[in-house]
Fold each of these.
Amino acid sequence: MDGGKIIIEKEPVLLPNRVLVRFQPHNREIEVPAGENLLKAAVEAGVYIQASCGGEAFCGKCRVKIEKGETEGPRTPKVSEEEYRQGFRLACQTRVRSDVEVLIPVESHLDRRVIARTRERVSAGRRVSHQELESLVLGWCYSPALRKQFVEVEPPTAKDNRSDLSRLLVALKKNCGLEGISVDSRLLWRLPSILREADWKVTATLVQTRMESQLGEYQLRGSRRTKLINLEKGDLAQEHYSIVLDIGTTTVWGQLLDLNRRKTLAEVSDYNAQIQYGDDVISRIVYSQKPGGLKKLQESVVGTVNGLIREMVVKGGVDISRVSHMTAAGNTVMTHLLLGLDPKYIRESPYTPVANYIPPIRAVEAGFEVGEHVHLYTFPSVASYVGGDIVSGVLGSGIYQRKPLTLYIDIGTNGEIVIGNSEWLVTAACSAGPAFEGGGIKHGMRATTGALEDFRINPVSYEPMLLTIGMVKPKGICGSGLINMIAEFLEAGVISPNGKFNAELPTPRIRPGPDGREYVLAYAEETATGADLVITEVDIDNLMRAKAAMYAGYVTLLQSVGLSIASLEQVVIAGAFGSFIDLERAITIGLLPELPLDRFLFIGNGSLLGARLISFCNEMLDDGERISRMMTNIELSENPSFMDNYIAALFLPHTNSAEFPGVSQKLKVRSSEFGVRKLEAL
Amino acid sequence: MDGGKIIIEKEPVLLPNRVLVRFQPHNREIEVPAGENLLKAAVEAGVYIQASCGGEAFCGKCRVKIEKGETEGPRTPKVSEEEYRQGFRLACQTRVRSDVEVLIPVESHLDRRVIARTRERVSAGRRVSHQELESLVLGWCYSPALRKQFVEVEPPTAKDNRSDLSRLLVALKKNCGLEGISVDSRLLWRLPSILREADWKVTATLVQTRMESQLGEYQLRGSRRTKLINLEKGDLAQEHYSIVLDIGTTTVWGQLLDLNRRKTLAEVSDYNAQIQYGDDVISRIVYSQKPGGLKKLQESVVGTVNGLIREMVVKGGVDISRVSHMTAAGNTVMTHLLLGLDPKYIRESPYTPVANYIPPIRAVEAGFEVGEHVHLYTFPSVASYVGGDIVSGVLGSGIYQRKPLTLYIDIGTNGEIVIGNSEWLVTAACSAGPAFEGGGIKHGMRATTGALEDFRINPVSYEPMLLTIGMVKPKGICGSGLINMIAEFLEAGVISPNGKFNAELPTPRIRPGPDGREYVLAYAEETATGADLVITEVDIDNLMRAKAAMYAGYVTLLQSVGLSIASLEQVVIAGAFGSFIDLERAITIGLLPELPLDRFLFIGNGSLLGARLISFCNEMLDDGERISRMMTNIELSENPSFMDNYIAALFLPHTNSAEFPGVSQKLKVRSSEFGVRKLEAL
């Protein structure tokens, strides 16, 4: 399998029971996990049900009748007792328990001739399970850098009164074959009391360190050595944990790993508290230059991490003192700020970071609330705007090991792009702007409760079907919701390929607003904010700029190595945001290139994946550094063809329809279908 | 010369002018440096001149007449103008400027038939000069572990915007051929501003570190690597200093070294401020176990060192920030206390230290007032009572490199003994007690101003001739003075070989006291204390125990390897105390073995010598650790023959006169001479 396309070689993973939901009168069927929400199933199936409250049982519009099968859900005042007995339910409040047949009453779909369009499942593209993720990378073996070893030390006698340290090292050699161990000198202060209080039965924590290797800027040397960093009383060899972190500009993710059992004990996330000082890396750098600013930024993110650590050890039922190591991946600015390194010159031309490779530091010295022996390893960066998060992601996805030409993307405020294979890797970062994270959008918000996440439009009435995160009254629009909405608008002819609303459509929802025309997604009484929720032409323009920047990034990077989109054999989509994307719709708007859907692979948080891999397999550290050295960074802002590609991509999906033949064809068909239906509806 | 006896291969050192002093009526001659004090010259020559005030011109008894030659000295009321014109002077106030002939008037020597005994010069044995010391060790080359390197770094450009660190390392590689450098991560915090404020012209401090090697308790690995530890603005490569320290139980010595010029810029010493918490290592350990005791002890000695550092940088005209490194040697307890390591179990059987080898620590973390980048290397110990000071001394003396069987001794409260050569080394420590440092002696004191340092006795009148340090009124007796006194007493028959005073002598100075008999060295009106200064039989007993412990140490150690005193080809005497010893008299009392005097070599402060050597020659670190591993420690207290040897040595010089044939013969002759003279005097 080596060198081939990524094929996951795991045994089949046990899936939750799946059930079949059939929607009538459309006779559309979809398979979903048992327990799935019926409104979500309808969205997945491409069946339109009226729903303007986001799924909070507030509007009562999504009434359906269960004809067959088992469902469950709370009673609601919107359904009378009589209706309930007949099988009426609110779709948004109902979960399916078995195969079911659902009738959508005429008042719920409003339009008898509902779109029977076929579409790929939202989850098109491979979404890889947790267990499968580990097999993305070839040839890795379970060999954590950290090791805990219970050892019984010989107490001193008159005949053998060597030093405490000597006795301990002799015991480690005798019982465990460990030689040439060096020692963290701090341990010596506690050594005599620990040994004696533990009756000479102790657990040693050992780390495989290396001659510091240094990523191009230094010379790589492979030799490793073992260092004794901690000693605990009694046998605690089985309590051996590490923490991995993805330090995002917006969100910090953490996992607590059981190093012995190769398990994730907890996964948590929280906003990076630095947000209060600016939304993007540039505004953070600006803030860092104010008096005390750098310190505040560092303390903020460390505070966030400390909160996550507390949460994880509680969730995992782990004593914090048993955590042996930390690994963090982040973009270059986040890595600088995490450690309190001055990011000033990252922002000033010619954009130089302090260092790409940062030797592991003692975590307590940076303010992390962990044991004194814990070191923090940060993933090496490549350049000012290509950080350790992408190195970690490339590592975690294994693309640097395989022959197929792969595009790796992490879509975000700083879109990061890697193209290459086992022979070479080029990388670039493009400033997509915050639209994907809900920034710069009139009613944009982050992907949290109340964010409009999925969207359908009635092709005749142009009435919306909203689904929010948490199924509550809509509050705003998150990035993935925005993509879904724009794609839906485009397919329904609500907007034209240049992103402007079609003013001639017979719907009061399209109206002039302060930012050009706008579409009312929900009226004031249906929203959480008590104000109309709208999407404006300026919002659409912002999204178009963001997707154009990403697309121009891939194309320019490919051109710089003499290749084209068509030559891509695989597209790996990383990032929390990436995992919520509807692949087909992302292609529809031209954010992702039009390629066969089976070439796409979603790996979730790639940088956490790489950090996790390194925690379990020390040997992979070399790979991380090799990747960082393999990567050639292309500065897009310096590349003259980037701007041409960008302007060409400022269209839905693209000015050159040949780049999106399928989408163009679909839009043509769709628009004629809409035309026909509109005529019929008159 | 390799493998041979230590022969100093340096060009002759320029000596100060030497002049000849001839004493009449004895017609005794001695060569001394021009400027020598006349009383001291008399002592050296073995000529007795009355002097009971220690040399302060107070008693006026040491009148002499300059017959020929040039002298100088202040006028004193004890010599009239007329007498002065005739050539009369107080010997204690007179310095010789040319060859002189001195008449000792009858009233000054009191006994016409002054002893014309021949004796070796006090300075018998080789006393090695500073420059010569460096050539004791073979094959060392100037290669300090620390190196400063001025380097011009390329500023970043749009085409080359590698990280600041990368640029610096590239410059070090290009300009200095340095590769594979690792970096102290702390430097990164200051890196961007230093580079830019210095206009990219900086001085790097680089250290050759090693895979930690570990003295038997660990495996030794030879590979070294270069680590960047400091960066300064501009060209400061020529300001490159280190500090070496000898942490003694009583005294701390320091030298400030110019690493580039291989020079000592300052040498200072001060009492170890820990003295306030106890005189010896045992009482320090006891104190360390009180609440807060360990911290106080550590802070005390660090305070002493900080004081010495301040003094040295002022003396040397050096900015403290230019000091790059510190090396310290001390006994095991002192090393523990210097770093704040708990010495508790050094004192409790079976006497285990925390560690013999301690990895270099960051000096500021232990409280030393030096730059953040400065590391402190402490010499490895061998066992609880054989410390890094002795390892350093063996290193500095080069005895581990040569074939001749050598006895190395550092006489002190903890007498340290090494026997061996380039093939093997055995070592032992014996608790001699504090007598050599004036402890446990009724009027004992440290070797400071007012301490009785040299001593002669009139063989007929048994009147004393005292010489004190600083030539002031006597205050007490220091260790070397005690040895001189006991030897003189023994030779004059004032005490018998079992250390008891001869009560039958016709002198009022021998009298009963609270501690057995005592001898009055000076009456109350002649002393600085205003009380009689006496030496008691208990004092003598204490000294005998101390010297017996040392001697039994050598013998037991030799026996443990199947050898005897006679097989010793060389005796190296180290330590500040050692350098004040009168070799012949130390043999007379049986402290040093009776061997030809040319086999003895005095090297002064051996541990400072080794620390200094390592500062100039990094390669020698391996030798230090090799020595520590070569050394087999013999626990004397566990050795049954030690007690036998000890008891046999509780005699002056020894119960077995065959071990000191020369001394025994001399005492026999002397006693008959004294007998004859006494008869004549009647």
Amino acid sequence: MPVAEVARQMLDAYPSELNVDRGLLVRCIEACSDCAESCTQCADDCLGEESVQDLTTCIRLNLDCADICAATGRVVSRQTGYDPAVTSAMLRACVEACGTCADECEIHAAHGMEHCRVCAEECRRCEQACGELVAEIA
Amino acid sequence: MPVAEVARQMLDAYPSELNVDRGLLVRCIEACSDCAESCTQCADDCLGEESVQDLTTCIRLNLDCADICAATGRVVSRQTGYDPAVTSAMLRACVEACGTCADECEIHAAHGMEHCRVCAEECRRCEQACGELVAEIA
Amino acid sequence: MPVAEVARQMLDAYPSELNVDRGLLVRCIEACSDCAESCTQCADDCLGEESVQDLTTCIRLNLDCADICAATGRVVSRQTGYDPAVTSAMLRACVEACGTCADECEIHAAHGMEHCRVCAEECRRCEQACGELVAEIA
Amino acid sequence: MPVAEVARQMLDAYPSELNVDRGLLVRCIEACSDCAESCTQCADDCLGEESVQDLTTCIRLNLDCADICAATGRVVSRQTGYDPAVTSAMLRACVEACGTCADECEIHAAHGMEHCRVCAEECRRCEQACGELVAEIA
């Protein structure tokens, strides 16, 4: 089942009112989950390339982005004891990490790295989903 | 996009041979991602219930299961420098965590907790996906 | 061995120049590690209290703070392919999470919750260490 | 403050009886925290080496070991709703990951990689601490 469907069903079962727009939430949770996965795999794909020496900045940004997306997805998934300032700060960090990782991946995508092309797309999607959610909260 | 689709595209872009069956891998990655999400949200949903006092064991198992599924999903996603013994040990820990969390969630699902019902299903799916992958590796 | 000593030895073995002040780095890594641990345990201690119903906001902020400190500690530990904007954004999110969690824990500490008292201290220490590092980077 | 001291104070504040020996718990929590940190930094140090091409298996095992130690440290830190089977399975996965990562790091330590030497020591310490705890639980 897609993560978005899991998130939707679980948010529907939440015992109180949600703190933010359900559609934006689901999109952000899915984007964080996708981006964490694509960055984890892109780091690993880069590590398997003969040209790994040229990909060390990409690997590092992938690792940061995977960690930040995973933490953001968890923070955003929680509704109880919701704090808009913490959530916003984390979303802003995620926008920064996703944008920076996308910039780097796009360089390597232009030189034929297919995993960097897919990963850049996921990073851009997550950058946008987090940006839209933070705009709603602020 | 579903995580399964992201994982499939990234595995297709992996620069060498995959170490295990591609279909089982994708299914396990998706199941770990889904289960980590459902457990994170089930812990939060339980925390929002008036009867939270009766749900503390469920919350704890949800937190463990979310952490273990997240780590397992990462280990399984990596193909470079693959080590079957580490992967298998982690998959076995995930089978144990998912099965135990499902058992607990099913108790509360029987008393009308909808989030526990959904979560138990995701735990069972992940328990099975990890079990099938470990059987292939062993 | 203290985490600070591990971090110091590993930074000394880093094959290039460090990107930021070694002392501030070590202090921030240790503070993130300590705070992630105290928040994980404070959430669990709260869950074990008879008055858990009154502690749900504290548990939630503990869980967020633990996730954010863990991710921040990892980002800050990495020197290769260093990006000051990503690091700063993550440090700012950590300052926000630690400050908010400390505020909440201090309320319960004033009512005799010893684990909240210890946790508030760790949160304040981490808030300060991250704040000092972000000030140096900016 | 050392993580061991944080863990000790938080366990002392736990509102019920601990489920396992306090000394073994504290040692295991500290070892997981140290080993997660040393593996995160060893992966980064390897990534900064000119000979990164020869260190890809080491980086991969470092990343797995960091994720598994972090998850194990969290599972072991929780006392509420304790489940010996889940805890033991996770500790066994951690023993496997630490032992495998230590074996790999020792190869590179023998060729002068100082970060691999330090990391191998932390992995061995964590392998032993987790092994002793699992022996007590079983």
